[in-house]
Design brief:
The structure is a single chain. The chain has seven helices and 14 strands. By secondary structure, the protein is an alpha/beta fold. It has a domain of about 90 residues: Nucleotidyltransferase, domain 5 (2-Layer Sandwich). The radius of gyration is 18 Å and the shape is globular.
Length: about 270
């Protein structure tokens, strides 16, 4: 495991600290914040080598608790986003439990994974996704009262669906990215992919724009995560999109851009 970021600010004295965790195939990011999600107390961003040979298993998850005791403390609330990409979004009216499980198993296999289903009533969707057994058992044992959701479920709350020209939310992590798009109140797509170069991300964006008939000049591209205006990725994006905005967090992270950890801030805000 490698720690990319660590921020330590003030310590809560209210007894109402919130712990937010995002856990994916090659990362875990977590923070403690006040109940209103306006003050950041502590934040860590840790990466792990991919499987096989790496990835999250019983040993690595146990080691995480030893190296980061903040995860073992007591909190007013705990909210967790499962950032694994194996997900199917389908209309709620067409969903059946058996069909959802069969679809996940047929697309991603059923070995060593647990199938979870979440309703997204405001969008009339069902999110069926797969979580590695070791991760699911760790979350249940360590955070039995946590609010747990998939990254797409969490992302819907910050998707500006009313944008007439369309909106694409793009969140960048070290090795992968999440993209969600909507237009005129309608959900279009959610996707999570690995990348090795800016061109990989740009390809997915252009493909999304072309497939759904969006306009590169009218679509709002809302950025968050590990990208800044001096990066090669931003320069590539600026050549193709006119309306680019950073989604800033509601807390301050001294020394880092305000949008670096917006996805964690989103979790804190959804329970504030």
């Amino acid at each position: 495991m490698k720690q990319l970021f660590h921020i330590s600010n003030t310590t809560s004295e209210s007894g109402q600290e919130v712990l937010c965790v995002r856990l994916g195939p090659q990362h875990i990011a977590f923070c403690t914040t006040n109940k209103a999600a306006t003050v950041l107390h502590e934040l860590s961003y840790v990466t792990i080598e991919p499987a096989p040979g790496g990835g999250w298993n019983n040993a690595s998850l146990a080691g995480l608790l030893e190296t980061h005791p903040v995860l073992k403390a007591s909190y007013y609330r705990v909210v967790i986003s499962v950032d694994f990409p194996q997900s199917i979004l389908m209309p709620a009216v067409a969903y059946t439990q058996q069909e959802g499980s069969v679809l996940i198993q047929s697309l991603y296999g059923k070995d060593l994974c647990v199938t979870v289903t979440e309703a997204i009533p405001e969008w009339q969707l069902m999110n069926i996704y797969a979580v590695p057994v070791a991760v699911q058992e760790w979350i249940t044992a360590q955070f039995p009262s946590a609010k747990v959701m998939h990254q797409y479920t969490a992302g819907f709350s910050r998707l500006l669906a009313g944008e007439p020209g369309g909106c694409i939310n793009l969140d960048i992590r070290r090795d992968d990215f999440t993209l969600m798009a909507a237009k005129n109140g309608k959900f279009l797509v959610a996707a999570a992919n690995e990348y090795t170069s800016p061109e990989d991300i740009l390809y997915q964006l252009i493909n999304t724009v072309n497939h759904f008939g969006l306009s590169q000049s009218d679509t709002l591209l809302a950025l968050s995560g590990l990208v800044d205006k001096e990066s090669a990725l931003y320069r590539e994006l600026y050549q193709y999109f006119i309306r680019i905005e950073f989604r800033d967090a509601t807390w301050q992270t001294e020394g880092y851009p305000a949008h670096f950890f917006t996805s964690l801030n989103d979790l804190a805000r959804c329970v504030s």
